[in-house]
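FORM 12-B: Structure-to-Sequence Request
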């Protein structure tokens, strides 16, 4: 199901920390994974979990226009396809390799020290499937566009108005399966909890 809304996700998990590669005679590279295939996210605002199927970005990477930034700051662009940013789908997930400019040496150092432990990406889901047979709905993204990748230190799914509204729009626009009365009550309670959280955050 296609969407117009861009969504942002973070991955801060063991084995997903960005790394710096320095080889004599070659440019310094920042290497990380924006996506790990079939790895369930943490619950997104208590509404659903999410995973990406292998090959979800294959079509998007045929002629990509994607940039890499520091902490999603458009004033600090680290690289851009096809020259200083390379993107690959491998057995583990969607891998990025950035050749940062010299002014970004301070950022490279924070990654080398282990202070920056996650990656983030901005995408738009083109095709997706929903599984609502368990306690929480699971969204499987099978095809997506990619716009940006970024090394980040912020926790997954920050409590921002944009993040909450984007997740709520995604959840509300999913195909509605036939559900039992008990399941309907659970979902109503989850949405009520979300609304109370938004009021608390003054969103």
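FORM 12-B RESPONSE
SEQUENCE OUT:
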């Amino acid at each position: 199901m296609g969407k117009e809304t861009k969504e942002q996700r973070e991955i801060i998990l063991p084995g997903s920390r960005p790394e710096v590669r320095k080889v004599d005679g070659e440019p310094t590279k920042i290497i990380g994974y924006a996506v790990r295939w079939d790895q369930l996210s943490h619950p997104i605002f208590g509404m659903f979990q999410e995973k990406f199927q292998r090959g979800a970005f294959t079509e998007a990477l045929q002629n990509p226009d994607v940039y890499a930034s520091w902490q999603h700051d458009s004033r600090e662009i680290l690289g851009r396809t096809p020259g200083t940013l390379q993107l690959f789908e491998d057995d583990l997930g969607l891998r990025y390799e950035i050749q940062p400019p010299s002014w970004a040496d301070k950022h490279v150092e924070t990654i080398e020290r282990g202070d920056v432990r996650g990656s983030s990406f901005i995408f738009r889901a083109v095709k997706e499937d929903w599984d609502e047979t368990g306690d929480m709905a699971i969204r499987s993204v099978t095809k997506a566009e990619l716009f940006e990748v970024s090394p980040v230190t912020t926790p997954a799914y920050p409590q921002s108005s944009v993040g909450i509204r984007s997740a709520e729009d995604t959840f509300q626009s999913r195909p509605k399966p036939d559900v039992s009365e008990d399941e309907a009550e659970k979902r109503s309670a989850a949405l009520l909890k979300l609304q109370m959280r938004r009021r608390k955050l003054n969103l």
